[in-house]
Design a protein that fits this description.
2 copies of one chain form a homodimer. The first copy, chain A, contains 11 helices and no strands. Chain A has 207 residues and is mainly α. In chain A, helix 4 runs parallel beside helix 8 and helix 10 packs antiparallel against helix 11. The longest helix of chain A is centred in the middle third of the chain and has 28 residues. The interface between A and B is large, with 51 and 51 residues. Chain A binds a DNA duplex (30 and 30 nucleotides) through helix 2 and helix 3.
DNA sequence: TCGATAGATGACCGTGAGGTCATTTTTTTG
DNA sequence: CAAAAAAATGACCTCACGGTCATCTATCGA
């Protein structure tokens, strides 16, 4: 096995390789069933090496989930708060963001992991709720409030239940993992249809 | 430990007890982590007894998932096909059915199990798709087609993506399992809001 | 060039769980 | 009531995996 120079970059690359391999395994066989030996092998390191970077299998999962979330939501938040576009346009942007997320296998796999194992790992559920769910919900609420204020939207139920906006992303994540071999799903089209429907309901018009 | 007479009823009761205990454990700690010893103890039998009724842990999971599905969907199908009510009424009925499902902890737990472990157990994913997903989708399609035919509905995207109708049930199942300790969700209200929104989009009216 | 130090390794340990089966208990039968 | 049959039991076997740590290796400072 080739050894690398001990630069910080090499260290980071190694951590990334371990996390990528772990996501692979966790996602494929589940957290419990995933074997550290396999993860180590896939990452090109020895099992002991994993313990130089992560305290335990559970911490590895946590670090992994945290690492995937990162910047994208923040970019959307900035874009939305800076924009002067009509609320319907912002909702479409949100939809495009979800569609993009649905295309990204890593993000989908992390989502599915959170939904599958989150109940058993409060730290992960908490983190995901704080960093993704609640931020996404706030964004949806802000957009709808804006549309209501401008008179563009005449209906505000989804402001009470922002989950209704995010639902198709969840459906896509679950479907692509569980039912895709049985029946294919065009996730971006699903999300687009959902946004379309939402806008019809919100504006009361067929545009 | 009390022994029971060997009537068929006793046998069935024992099978049910084992499956109930198994659902408990699988749902609480996941399939892999669930221990047969615990399931046996909770069911009031010895571990060996489980193997008199189920070939393996995996078969136990399959039997369990299959057993929960049962009749309720069929009742809804019959009710819908017999009804002469307007399509919007039928959609609300479907919503009520989902809301009821969201209240039933066992059904929710099975749903969550399927979504969590389904990818690893093709038999389960296949079964659930055939017995629940595709039947639910067909029902939604039929209702919307009826509404379109009668001129009641002026929009048909959800006919292409019946998943959009079912989405909030999935959201509810996942949310109640993963995020409920962090943020409560009123699942029936969520579903009602969703149906309301769907109807606005479908009819083009604010009723 | 040569210790010294930090990093990496993988054989090994302990534990715990799925599954088996000889034994025990209950029921049935003659 | 006794003996045979069926059902239930739980101690035990096997094996695999998370985690450890003595050993080895690469890098670096002098």
């Amino acid at each position: 096995m080739a050894r690398q120079a001990r630069t910080p970059e090499a260290r980071e690359a190694r951590v990334k390789a371990i996390m990528a391999a772990a996501l692979d395994q966790f996602s494929k066989v589940g957290f419990e069933a995933a074997r550290l030996d396999d993860i180590a092998q896939a990452a090109g390191v020895a099992k002991g090496t994993i313990y130089l970077y992560f305290e335990s299998k559970e911490r590895l999962l946590e670090a992994l989930v945290a690492s995937i979330i990162s910047a994208p939501l923040e970019a959307l938040e900035n874009s939305v708060s800076a924009s002067t576009a009509p609320a319907s346009e912002l909702l479409r942007e949100f939809g495009a963001f979800m569609a993009q997320g649905a295309q990204d296998a890593d993000r989908r796999r992390v989502m599915h992991l959170v939904f599958s194992e989150g109940a058993r790992f409060p730290a992960i559920a908490q983190f995901h709720h704080r960093e993704v769910i609640s931020r996404g919900a706030a964004l949806v609420r802000a957009i709808i409030a804006k549309g209501r204020a401008s008179g563009e939207f005449v209906y505000d139920e989804p402001e009470r239940f922002p989950q209704l906006m995010i639902a198709p992303a969840l459906v896509a994540a679950v479907w692509l993992h569980v039912f895709d071999p049985i029946e294919k799903l065009d996730a971006p089209a699903l999300i687009a249809a959902h946004v379309d429907m939402l806008l019809r309901a919100l504006t009361g018009r067929a545009d």
